[in-house]
Every structure is written in structure tokens, then in C-alpha cells.
Amino acid sequence: MTASALDQFALRAQIARAADFGRYVLRNVRLSGPVRRTGSVGVANTAFFLADVFVENGRILAITSVCSRSTEASNPNLHSIDSRGRVMVPTFVDCHTHLDKSQILPRTPAADGTFDGALLVTRFDRTANWSSIDVSRRMDFSLRSAFHYGTSAIRTHIDSQIPQAGISWPAFIELRQHWRGKIDLQASCLFPIDMVRDDVFLSQNAKRVADAGGVLGAIAYPVPDIDCLLDKMFRTASYHGLNLDFHADETADPAADVLRRIAETSLRSSFPGKVLVGHCCSLAMQANSVVDATLDKVATAPVAVVSLPTCNLYLQDRRHNGTTPRWRGVTLLHEMKRRGILVARASDNTRDPFNSYGDLDMLDTFRLGTRALHLDHPHGDWIRAVSATPAEIMGLDSHGVIAKGQPANLILFEGRSWSEVLSRAESNRIVIRNGVPISASLPAYPELDTLEGLALR
Ligand SMILES: O=c1cc[nH]c(=O)[nH]1
Questions:
Q1: How far is the CA of 396 from the centre of ligand 1 (A)?
Q2: CA–CA separation, 280 vs 250, rounded Å?
Q3: How many CA atoms lie within 13 A of 68 on its CB side?
Q4: 311 lines ligand 1 (CB under 6 A)
Q5: Nearest atom (ligand 1) to Cα of 247
Q6: What Å distances lie between residue 284 and 254, 256, 295, 330, CA to CA?
Q7: Domain 3-90+401-437 coded CATH 2.40.30.110
Q8: From the CB of residue 22, how many other CB atoms can be counted at a distance below 10 Å?
Q9: Lowest CB count within 10 Å: 27, 33, 283, 360, which one?
Q10: What are 286-291's contacts with CB under 8 Å, separation 24+?
């Protein structure tokens, strides 16, 4: 164990003791402007500053800059803990995951790291193995990881073909209840957009989603009647008062232009809800003029975008001829953000045929995204892409910022700068929920061995 890990354990114990008294101050935490505010943040406000964070009965009572330290911070009756300049961020918000697929990798040896291969082998596994117990146990396993790492809200897609929808949605609803107060859960249905041609299928799914307080979603790609199918999705969402969430353009084919079509449909229909689109990989393969025209429409619609770097790096440009991938697969976040488009980053698939790796750790996603997309020099306010922005996209007021009156849902890293935070695993980060450090450990993989086909041989 490193000296800094020992230090971190001692700090956690101090905070836990102080939390027992209901009121304490964490002194000298390093905050950045973007984690404090709602709304857009000017470049000048992105720097770190040292602050004292006062916590009372699980909520943030006040935040004061060390430069204007109040006499209250030295009140001898207040439990005061010196964080010695560690970086603090709000708990993470993960707005695009596939909990229902997570952990199935050992059952899918035919997966070959391609998108088409993943679709095929997942379909076989779903049909053969996705009972209620199988889906619940795998989802719960992944949620325990996410909670451990400091995530407080998640949206998951749920494969909603018949009869799977009737199995997975009730399992999700039960888990959502079980996890209430720890992780706020949302779900979006998922099926290939061709299936929307069947009116009965669409209206059954929309009703199920509406009853469950979920989001209407589909995987959209350029079939000949795509505009008509998108119109149907938007009309149905309007009718049921639902938000929309699409997978789109998860391909290197520059002809894939569904992001633009989604924005056009939104504008055409004056859609009143929120629209989120994931992936949008093909944008990076298109001519600048095409990109500009698309992104102008996306900004006007407005449509939010979530980038999934872990999955895109894994699936895109996969070659089976012994050659190396030549492009990154990720979408154009800089260009989007410049136009004021809401952009988030999320975990996506974890240990399934769409991505062999991952453990729902949003720090890992933040780190990989920073490197793959050059979201540094400066780091600016990109931390919002895993906190405030996905919270806004998901309509969650009490997540994603560190602000007076908010629940004290915080992560205290060992690192004192973005470079320090992003250079190590930060496996000893202190996750504070409602003012109290959690002690939940990661679930152990052998737990999964008791599920059909998941035992390692
Ligand atoms: O990336 C993707 C696309 C479709 N389905 C998934 O689970 N992941």
C-alpha cells in the first residue's frame, strides 16, 4: 500500500467520524468552477480554487473560498477535516449504459469485436439465457460496481424485443426500487428502428415505457424509410409525453446521416421533449461542410449528444486482417460543444460482445475520453460531460453539481490536479453519499459463476 493510500484511509475515517455528528467542514478541497455551477461556464471560470465545503445533515450548507475563509471554518465546535488540496467532484451521472447486457461476455465466445458480430451473438444469448433472475443478477452486479466508483444516476437501455421486454422491464423496475436513494435509475427501450414499422409493437413498447416512467429509444440507421420511422417515434413520444434516446450512426460509413435526420425531425415536429443521441461516429468521416450543416441543425433542434469512447474505440475500425485500426471512432465533441450542443460522455457496454471490458467506472470513461478526444490543454469544463450535463439531459436537478442546498454527494480523489487524478486508478477515492463516506466494496467476479454459462472454465 502506498503512503498516499494510507493517507486516504485515514482521511476517510476522519470524515466518517465527523459525519456521525451531522455537521462538519471539509477544508482545502480543490474545486473547479464547472462543478459548482449550473448553466454554461465561461472559460475564465474553469480553474481550480481551494475551498471549504460545509456539510450538515447530508446536504451542502455552504461553500467558501479559502481566500475569504469565514470564522466559522475555525469554529472549535465544528468537526474540521483538512483535505490538503485534493480534487473534489460531484458524484458521476452515467446517461448511456446497457446494464441488461453487462457481464455476458463469457457466454459469447463467438464475439469477434465487430458491431455486426456483437448484434448476432447477443441475440443468441438473449434468446437462450435472459431470464428474470439472469438479467436482475447481472444488472445488480454492475450497479454495485457503479455505486462503489461514485456514480449516483444511470440511464440504461433495455433490449425490448418481444418477449424480452416483458422479462427485462419488470426486473428493471424492481431493481430501481431496490436501489432508490443510492442510484437514480432511468431506462430507455431499445430495438432496431425497422421494428417501428409495426404499429402494434411500437404502441405496446411506448405504453410499457410510459407506465414505467422511461424513455422511448431505438437504434437508428439509414433504411430507405428512415424519415417516416423517425416521424413515428417522435409522434409516439409526443403522444405519451416521453423523452427520446437514439443510437445513431455507429459506423465509419460517411453516408450514415441519421443524426441530421433526427435533428430535422425534431425541428419539423416542434418536439417538446428532450432528445439524446448516442455514438454519431460517422460524423468524424464526413466532409466539413456536411458536418457543419448537421451540427447547426443539432444545435437548433436542440438535440444532445453522448459520446461513448470505450465502445467506439473497441468496435470501430476493427480489422481481422492483422492490420491496425486507423481512426478513433469517436464523434466530434469539440465542434459540438463550440455550438452550445449539450455533450455528455458515458460508459456504454461493459463486459459484453459490444465491449469486452469496463466496470461502470466513470472515471475510467472520463480518462479515456480525455485522451482519445484531446479534451485537455485546457481541461476546461469537460468534467461537466460526466456530471452536470448528463444530469441536465436526464432531467435530474439534484445531481451533477456541488452547490449549496444540494445533497452532499461527492468524490474526493487523491490527486490534486487533473494530471494527478487521471494518471492513477484512484482506487482509493472517497465516495461521500449524503455526507457519509460509503464503504461498499466491488462485487467479486466468482459471484457470476452461479449464473447459467458464466462460470469460467
Ligand atoms: O453500442 C451498442 C449498440 C447497440 N446495442 C448495444 O448494446 N450497444
A1: 24
A2: 6
A3: 4
A4: yes
A5: 3
A6: 8, 11, 12, 7
A7: no
A8: 12
A9: 33
A10: 286/254, 286/257, 287/254, 290/254, 290/257, 291/332, 291/335
Count the helix, strand and coil residues of the chain and give each as a percent rounded to the nearest 5. 40, 20, 35
Domain-wise residue ranges, the chain:
3-90+401-437, 92-394
User: Is the CB of 354 inside a 6 Å radius of any atom of ligand 1?
Assistant: yes
Give distance in angstroms: CA of 58 to centre of ligand 1.
37
Position in ligand 1 atom list of the atom nearest CA 101: 7
Chain center to CA of 409: 16
User: What is the Cα–Cα distance from 323 to 431, expressed in whole angstroms?
Assistant: 42
pLDDT grade, residue 41 (50/70/90)?
low
CB-ligand 1 contact for 115 (6 Å cutoff) = no
247 close to ligand 1 (CB < 6 Angstrom): yes
ipTM: 0.94
Q: Is 262 in the pocket of ligand 1 (CB under 6 A)?
A: no
Helix (H) / strand (E) element for 29: namely: strand 23-32
Ligand 1, closest atom to CA 122? 7
Report which protein residue has its CA nearest ligand 1's atom 1. Answer: 354
Ligand 1 pocket residue status of 141, Cβ below 6 Å: no
DSSP bridge pairs for 158: 189
275-287 residue pLDDT tens: 999 999 999 999 9
Q: Is residue 51 within 8 Å of 63, Cβ to Cβ? A: yes
Whether residue 250 lies in the annotated active site: yes
Q: Give me the mean pLDDT over the 372-382 stretch.
A: 96
Give the Cα separation of 409 and 309 in Å (integer): 26
Our mutation pick for probing the ligand 1 site, out of 95, 282, 349, 351, counting the most ligand atoms within 8 A of Cβ, is 349
State in words which class domain 92-394 has.
Answer: alpha beta
Give residue 38's pLDDT. 60
pTM assigned to the model: 0.96
Q: Given the CA of residue 219, which atom of ligand 1 is nearest to it?
A: 4
Dist CA 95 CA 376 (whole Å) = 22
Active-site option among 250, 392, 414, 426: 250
d(CA 343, CA 276) in angstroms, rounded, equals: 9
Q: How far apart are CA 108 and CA 97, in angstroms?
A: 19
pLDDT in tens, 390-406: 999 999 999 999 999 99
Edge-to-edge order in the sheet of strand 410-412: 88-90, 410-412, 430-433, 436-437
Distance CA 392, CA 75 (A): 36
